[in-house]
Amino acid sequence: MNFNFQKARDLMVENQLRPNKITEPTILDLFKNTKKEDFLSEELKKISYSDLDINLDINRGYLKNLHIAQLIHNSLIKEQDKVLHIGGLTGYVSVMLAALCKELIVIEHQKKLIKKIEENIKNLNINNLKIINSAFQDGCVKESPYDIIFIDNPIFELSNSFKDQLNSKYGKIIMIKKIDNYLCKAYRITKNNNNYTNEFLFDVFTKYELYRKRAEFIL
What we know:
Helix content: 25-40%
């Protein structure tokens, strides 16, 4: 019997997202209509919409669907925004971000993952997404400033250089700070000229860590 992915997407939205205050129609439609299974290998497809992290690389992968939705919801992305996504993996989250903004820059350093992103955006005819092969810690200065920097795998520390790449008027960083091996906390950092506000958003429990290079500590 064929697995019904559309039904699984609908159930994920109704059972995982709506009960946790993700009710914005645009975001719900994104999760209903973006085929996550197309971004995963055959052995992972059937857990696409389960309430689980999905491992794709050493210490990296897709967070639970709810956490992805919470991060996108709290990003407050506008149609005219330019967004930097740090760590594109196979493009699932990137594709949803691209649907919400004017321009998306995706940083990924694994060549096999870059190839998958390229295949997926070509299949979906997405033309506002640019992939940069670069170290995650550096961001992408040449494409800055950004209205939003979106980091959806946890990091212990965030380099101050990211702040310099933000739009000076209410540019935002959405990130997950790693507290220990499993506990993490999501934050929204908002820039207003040289002033910054840090807002705690929600707890995340995952073993993932985007990178381990030590940098300036800002939270």
